[in-house]
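From the shared-data thread, chain only:
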Amino acid sequence: MQELIAFFLFLKNPKYHDIEKRETIVLKTAFRVFLITFLVLTLINGLIHFMLGLFFILPNDRLQEIFESMKIGPWAVFAIIVFIGPALEEIIFRLPLVFKIQFFSIILAILIGVIIHYFIPYLPGFIVILLLFFIFSHFVPKHEKRIFDIWVRYFRFVVWFSAITFGLFHIGNFELVKASQYFIVPFLVIPQLGMGFVLSFVRLTYRQGFLIGLLVHIFINFVPATIYLFQT
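Structure, as tokens:
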């Protein structure tokens, strides 16, 4: 109950701490957070799909189609869903929540690199991001104090932006064929939005928050990945 209250206070006004503060047993905490989060978000997801399904034709989930187009085996898909995907997403969305100039340089390079790759798709995205990281690693430390002060002052927006972007990122999971589906798809990623806030809370609450959040993410993805594996 105390953690639940702390979570809702965190949602209202996330505050920055130099380091994650609470010691805990990593695996036990990760499994507890996973169990509560998975049950609550599964219930919310079911209710959302039921309510929207009464009035709209819901878009198809295109993840399986995406993986089939990659022409890789089911175990490779399983590894991407369970391990590679969560690791990349936690590095991008949660690692920078604890301020370190290297983390800031990483996320800045990724964000700008993705934007550049979107407008100039033939440029190798990874190379662009790597070059940007080296540039930012050289210039950003000179302004570390100023950046940190701004980071702390507007930290709630940093957390909200991270969690909301994480949720909206999963809109790409759906195949949108009707105009009405563009209106309802933000509601379909509410579980991912909730997951983004939970993992942000974990990252900033526990001393080993990044590892705990990564394990929670792996556990959550393990369920649909296992179902996919048995269906292939």
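The beta strands are 60-61, 174-175.
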